[in-house]
Amino acid sequence: MAADLSQIVKAYDVRGVVPDQWDEDLAELFGAAFVRVTGADAIVVGHDMRPSSPGLSGAFARGAARLGADVTLIGLCSTDQLYFASGRLNLPGAMFTASHNPAQYNGIKMCRAGAAPVGQDTGLAEIRTLAEQWSEQGAPEAAATPGTITELDTLDDYATYLRTLVDLTAIRPLKVVVDAGNGMGGHTVPTVFAGLPLDLVPMYFELDGTFPNHEANPLDPKNIVDLQARVRAEGADLGLAFDGDADRCFVVDERGEAVSPSAITALVAARELAKHPGGTIIHNLITSWSVPEVVRENGGTPVRTRVGHSFIKEEMAKSGAVFGGEHSAHYYFKDFWNADTGMLAALHVLAALGGQEGTLSELVSSYDRYVGSGEINSTVADQAGRTSVVKETYAGQDGIGIDELDGLTVAAGDWWFNLRPSNTEPLLRLNVEARDAATMAKVRDEVLTLVRTTD
């Protein structure tokens, strides 16, 4: 009986409960399938701190070597460190992580040489098909000459490379609290920050894939409460929170207030445009109006895209963009093979703050111009039906614009909202932004009433 991998092979990665949904036997088949689909004769493999990660990544490596590929194991790493290795070594790569998911989960993020993404339309569907076939028929025939498996530590090279992209030599001393959430930030931050004029206050740096302190998902406000309190208690200049695989970074100002990822996108965009005058900046359609405004003010060209890293990376490659940002705190850099790295965004924030005398809240105020609702989820059985009701309510009104690039976006002179269905759950996701709090609340409540009213 062939394994049904439909529940664990997602749009952009593999993710599921170990060993209930997948195990080392399947990981070995994924390794073989990855080599077969990419045609690679050499690959690089890394893993996070989850208890199941060393075994799964080792099995993947054996499957790849069985088909003749030489495997470089870089061991414990953040996801952006794996992308660095893929870019620097020019090899396809596989990262074993389930990011911020609970401890019983694990997954694989795969890329082609130069950190180019592998998703459903770029090889992942074929990898799933082969793994399903081989689970029924048996593993494919081994290559006449199996590949080798060797180890390489890339942490120092990764840290050195990041520091070549942002000049931190002249910044004033800063006190920074970092919450690694027991994830891979605890592994990478000490090396990346080494030698910088920073008074580092570490929180939850112990690598522990059971996440004993809080979920490693800073997008959920409850998971940055400890960081906010510590920043205030320490009188720190800022706080940084990384997710489980440390590819996303969230920022807290000196008051302990969360800084919008849109404001960070605008700040980093302005800095990247100073390095690359006239460049293109990608932003997804639920980042703030501030982002395209700041891009234009700094001589750049903003390009709006759908939500999701595959769309961002595709558009970056097509347009030659120098930077891209998402509301979810994913930040993409041309100088980093178009891949996302929260660590590089964090270095930009440190450089910007340390290069002047003001506070972080003062610095980001010019990039945070509007009032946003944040993402609000509603459980809705008929997503398409409720979205149609909302569209019909606003369509035809004077001064209202509507587009359906990704879900439904409705915009007026002083507000806009986007309503998008979840791909995996019966949810509608609402984001609202307005020029003032009262208008934002009014539009938010109007739309939520339409979404949550059953006929």
TrEMBL record:
Pfam families in alphabetical order: PGM_PMM_I (PF02878), PGM_PMM_II (PF02879), PGM_PMM_III (PF02880), PGM_PMM_IV (PF00408)
Chain ranges of the Alpha-D-phosphohexomutase alpha/beta/alpha domain: 7-136, 157-256, 264-370
UniProt cross-references to CDD domains, sorted A to Z: PMM_PGM
InterPro entries found in the cross-reference section: A-D-PHexomutase_a/b/a-I, A-D-PHexomutase_a/b/a-I/II/III, A-D-PHexomutase_a/b/a-II, A-D-PHexomutase_a/b/a-III, A-D-PHexomutase_C, A-D-PHexomutase_C_sf, Alpha-D-phosphohexomutase_SF
Alpha-D-phosphohexomutase C-terminal domain boundaries: 375-448
Cofactor(s) listed in the protein's UniProt record: Mg(2+)
Protein name: Phosphomannomutase/phosphoglucomutase
Species name: Streptomyces lateritius
